[in-house]
Amino acid sequence: MLSTCLRYVLNSLPVVSYVILLSFSYSFILYICGRVSLTFAGIYLVGAYATVSLGMALMGNNMSFAGFIGILLLACLLGAAMLVASYLCFERFLKTDVHRMVATSSLLVASRGLVKVIWGTTPVTYSAPFLSMGVSEIAGNIVPNYYLFMLAVALLLMLALSYFLNRTCWGMRFRASSLDGERTMAQACGVNQNVVTLMTFAIAGVLAGLAGGLYAPIAGAAYGSEGNALLLAALSVIIGGVGSIGGAVLAAFIVGIARAVAAIKMPVLELAVPFIIASITLMLRPFGLWGKEFRY
Predict the structure, then answer these.
(1) For residue 292, is it within any domain?
(2) Phi, psi of 136 (to 5 degrees)
(3) Residue among 41, 14, 10 nearest 235 (CA)
(4) Does residue 289 lie within any of the structural domains?
(5) Which of 30, 44, 123, 254 could form a disulfide with 222 if both were Cys (CB 3.0 to 4.6 A apart)?
């Protein structure tokens, strides 16, 4: 029984890892800036295709760990640049939530169009990083080392962000901005709101691009996969709570393990399980398992 449970957990690690990154990318903008941005899903898709294309073009099957890290860093920079550009060119001029929602939805569609023009709609794969890392045995279960690498990257980033938000002067400015709905008090205290907003979008873009880059060697890059990423991220935020790093990690584990179990035991419910969990969470704890009352 214990071995079976461990197997479900290990099999869910890839989904858990990229959902941690995506859910906090979505939640971070909502928590700090008080706005919903759907552009992160398009950045996830672009990050996945960029990682596959760069890996095949630069290294082929001769994958080195340092080379793959370099490609992931490029995916992060691409994600940050895209999300910051979306804010500078569009979102900062919009004053209402409805207009921002329409704009970010349009940017998501534009990202899909960009992928279609550059790479087409045919799924592409690049599994060299996944295969080159080998496998390990944990309590009698074989687990690819790449799964553990993905989880380590996601958790280390969450720890780094937790330290940044709670232990640094800039983190204090971020938290002050999140607690001040109109940001007037934070601005009166000397917090540069333009810098805070740009940094928020840049961090969210890094997380979204990295999520696509990390997941691509396992699932490949597929046109349309951003829809599933968007749903999982939004549901994880509902389950875990807005702006909560612990909530993002907890919700990702719940969703990932539940889907792994459903895929084997009840395949027909695999896609419905996250919605069921989110519905139960909303009934029992409307602000999420680790969240607090949130107004924006």
Answers:
(1) no
(2) -130, 165
(3) 41
(4) no
(5) 123
